[in-house]
Amino acid sequence: MYLHGTSSINDDNHLTIGGVDTVQLAREYGTPLYIYDVELIRKRARSFKKAFEEQGIKAQVAYASKAFSCLAQVQLMDEEGMSLDVVSGGELYTALSAGFPADRIHFHGNNKSYEELQYALQSEIGCFVVDNFHELRMLESLCNQLNKNTSILLRITPGIEAHTHEYILTGQEDSKFGFDLQNGQAEQAVLESLESHCLNLLGVHFHIGSQIFETTGFVLAIQKLYEYLGKWDKEFSFFPEVLNLGGGFGIRYTEEDEPLEPKEYIDAMIQEITRLSTSASVAVPEIWIEPGRSLVGDAGTTIYSIGSQKDIPSVRHYVAVDGGMSDNIRPALYQAQYEAALANRAGEKGTKKVSIAGKCCESGDMLIWDIILPETKSGDLLAVFCTGAYGYSMSNNYNRIPRPAVVFAEKGEARLVVKRESYEDLLRLDLPLKNGVFAGN
């Protein structure tokens, strides 16, 4: 069993996280339960920032809050001096409600609404990452209406593909995101932005994919970008103050994954940007990055209670848990793979191949295919590792299943940061019919 972060096995043969017994947490807060290793999140955040500091490069490390957002997580990122990447009015509202400084918030998204742009402008956020001409012109119009100025980056697609699953590739030419470099859209967006009296064009942004285990893709994207930056500098006297290189830094889900340390990604980026800037006789721009999964992914563990089992001789042995695609849709969505162990018998050697089924009424609700576990029984606790990114944030109420609670564990203490949904919560927005008329209207 691979132990991430502060995870260990105590004298009772129980899995501990942050010095806290996960079996006790399951008893106190119920299952399914997301548990976050806060020390590991802090360590990752500091390692990204330190990599820039060691090189003397001005930078912003913005947590991509789509990976996992709640008040406590946003406050933790503020404690660590991070900036924040949001992609919706809801994520922005969460950030501002948590007291996160608005000037360190960057607003992303390929279809920001009029209301979202207005809300963000009135909140005086630090930067918009503009994705398309519709947004660019709507933002300029809003700025004029509200008599405000704002800073922007232009998101571009550099035509570089990262070696990841096709559903999470975003940097290639055929993408719903950004202005394309090669067909002239990016250049037109630069010209329109420079002509604006209320938009301050800080620089450009790209994001080439997710779960990236090498630096080559980033280096190639930087090289492609600099070909155009040199041209724009000569023709428009524009060279960016900021280069935002996105995120996508990989984590270890299974033994096949071999991610790099944050410093390795950052050093490769800085080296190439410095080389190309020196060659072009321009100053090295401020560098921004947006880690999300790599900060919280392997810091999160989901604890389930095992219920029913079904043995099909010579075919498969199913072990069902009290969650599934309602709290982790990634296996069903794009065949994501995970490792797991029994939290209440963590030191026992596996003896039997089983497959972990969720409880949703879908045959595709399978969390893990073919894993070796000790002989399991109803009431055992299953720990599925590395569920910290896109677990809770993509959770849902399919089959009217309430979303799980979330606990932060650090230095022997645990804190509930998201309450478990109740059945009453599921009905909170429902309006009943009475004599064929909406009673709550």
Describe the structure.
Specifically catalyzes the decarboxylation of meso-diaminopimelate (meso-DAP) to L-lysine. The chain has helices at residues 22-29, 38-55, 71-79, 89-97, 114-122, 133-146, 185-195, 216-236, 262-279, 293-296, 330-334, 423-426, and strands at residues 8-9, 15-17, 20-21, 33-37, 59-64, 83-86, 105-107, 127-130, 150-157, 179-180, 199-205, 242-244, 286-289, 300-312, 316-321, 340-342, 352-357, 366-373, 381-385, 405-410, 413-418, 433-434, 437-438. Strands 4, 14, 15, 16, 17, 18, 19, 20 and 21 form a nine-stranded mixed sheet that branches. β22 (433-434) and β23 (437-438) form a beta hairpin. α8 packs parallel to α9 (262-279). It has two domains: 8-37 and 298-426, Lyase, Ornithine Decarboxylase, Chain A, domain 1, CATH 2.40.37; 108-291, TIM Barrel, CATH 3.20.20.10. With 441 residues, the protein is an alpha/beta fold. Helices cover 29% and strands 25% of the residues. The longest helix has 21 residues, at 216-236.
